[in-house]
Amino acid sequence: MAERNQAELQSVERALEALLDGVSRLEGERIACPDADGRVLVDDVRAAIDVPPADNSAMDGFALASADSGRQLPISQRIPAGQPAQPLAPGTCARIFTGSEIPAGADCVAIQENVERVGDTAIVPVTQAGQNVRRRGLDVTMGQPLLGAGTRLGAAALGLLAGQGYTTVDVVRRPRVALLLTGDEIVEPGQPLSSGQIYNSNGPMLAALIRRFGGELVSQVRVADDFGTTLARLEEAAAVADVIVTTGGVSVGEEDHVKPALERLGTLSLWRLAMRPGKPLALGTIGSTRLVGLPGNPVSSYVGAWLYLRPLLGRLQGCADRESLPVISAEAQFETRTQGRRHYMRANLEFHGERILATPYPEQSSAVLTSCAETNAFAVIPADSHIRPGDRVDCLWLQG
């Protein structure tokens, strides 16, 4: 049966535009480089030194002037890595090791496997100038751009900073996030369940996603189905957080108190989106604090966190690669039809050389959280579409 009142539904893109309107990057802070994994640079970083800082050997062997190669040469010095090299005496060679500085007067290295040792001399084959030599500044030259503002620091970037001698780095402060979980029916794992109760799956799931998206979880509170309590918890959250995330409580039922509480404290807009799962979305502000109201359904909450919370936290960090997910065109391994709403199917991307296959989880019901745990992408199926096996579909790859 066709869905009713589709004209009232808004697009995902329009909701995201409204969510990010007026959002700017947070201020920076200086932290120790070893603590900066996953953090986002405030400013461009330029190289302070050349890397390598001098010509050095790419191999264990013998350093010499290429003009002296092809004959037997006295070994005039030994140059371990980390030790300064003396100028090479003319007509001699130097025993050298990988990473050791090339001595003045040498312009090549003959690898040890090709050299015959005869006492304190070496018979060196013909070797070309520059052979087995890593030139100064081969990797990085002083003053060149090293890392750009907005870069999310990972292992290699932290290695670059360490290689430049940096001990601290200026990064964007983590967005502070308060998580409010509504519903008297929610019980913490480890407690016995009574009739009508469910375990709190949204809390641990969203807390993990908040951290994955670069946020700092400053509070996680269960909120009873009571107006006064909801009002108090929202006020407390707004005082300490840049972003409040709620689950449930924004419908018009007698036990849905987030909507009237937020309307008293700030502003609220309710969105009915042309998507599944996760049609309802609440967006609001309390002072300068942004609120994202996700559905109480865990699958819808999971999908909504990737589509809305991740871009918001990315914008607050000034991190472009967190504002949007990688889009990968894949070959559908399924058949499906949609009506008036876009479907975000939980699917796995499989890479087979140049072929990329999208295989959906067998059960796409919004009641099946396993569909999120066992997949790595959302296959985006446009509204009013018929997808057949072999058709191309755009997939959002769920990378942090």
UniProtKB/TrEMBL annotation:
Keyword flag Transferase: yes
Domain annotation MoaB/Mog: ranges: 178-315
The gene coding this protein: glp
Domain of life where this protein originates: Bacteria
Residue ranges that the Swiss-Prot or TrEMBL entry lists as coiled coil: 2-29
Provenance organism: Salinicola lusitanus
Protein known as: Molybdopterin molybdenumtransferase
Gene3D superfamilies attached to this UniProt entry: MoaB/Mog-like domain, MoeA, C-terminal, domain IV, Molybdopterin biosynthesis moea protein, domain 2, Molybdopterin biosynthesis moea protein, domain 3
Record's catalysed reaction(s): adenylyl-molybdopterin + molybdate = Mo-molybdopterin + AMP + H(+)
